[in-house]
C-alpha cells in the first residue's frame, strides 16, 4: 500500500503526507525511515499517525493539499469526498473494495484455476481491495476445484509471521477477526457448508454455498 501510493507521486515530483491505518502504523514509519536512509530529502515523504476523525479529516479538508487518495471503507470514502469538496475541491481517488468475482469454466486448467482462486483471496490474508472473494465455478469441474481449494487451505500454515515456514500471520485486529467469523456464521445460517477449519485458532476456511455454486 505504501509503495503503490508513494512511488507514482514521487515519480511525478510531488511531496506526500501519508496517514496509515491506526491499527497498522509501524510499517509506514519504517518505510519513511528507509526512504531517509536512501537519500529522500526531509519533507518529501511525511508520515502522520492518528485516527481518521482527526488526522484523516485534517488531511482531507486541508486547503494546501492538492490531491487525496484513500483506500478503505465506503463509509469513510464518502467522508473524504465531502471534506475535499467542502475545502479546495481537491481531486480524490478512492479504492473502496468490494466483492470481486472470479469465474471458472469447464474448459479451464483445474490446477491453474485453483491456484489463481486460492491466491486471489489468501494473498496478504485477503486484505486487498481486489481479492476474489466470490468464486463461480461451472458444474463440470466444480467438485475438482472445491477439492483443490480445500487441499490448499488445509496445507496453509498460520502462525508467527517471522517464521519462514509460516504462510500467514494473525488476522489484523480483534474487531476484524470477529467480523470475519460473523460472516462465516451468517453463511452457515443461509445454508453454506464449512469444508475446512477447526475453530477460531485455525485458518483459513473454505465455505461452500450450494445454492449458487460458490466456493
Automatic annotation (TrEMBL):
Signal peptide: none annotated. PROSITE patterns: ALDEHYDE_DEHYDR_CYS (PS00070), ALDEHYDE_DEHYDR_GLU (PS00687). The keyword Zinc-finger does not apply. Residues 2-199 form the Aldehyde dehydrogenase domain. Keywords: Oxidoreductase. The active site is at residue 95. It comes from the Eukaryota. Belongs to the aldehyde dehydrogenase family. This is Aldehyde dehydrogenase domain-containing protein. It comes from Hibiscus sabdariffa (roselle). The lineage of its organism: Eukaryota, Viridiplantae, Streptophyta, Embryophyta, Tracheophyta.
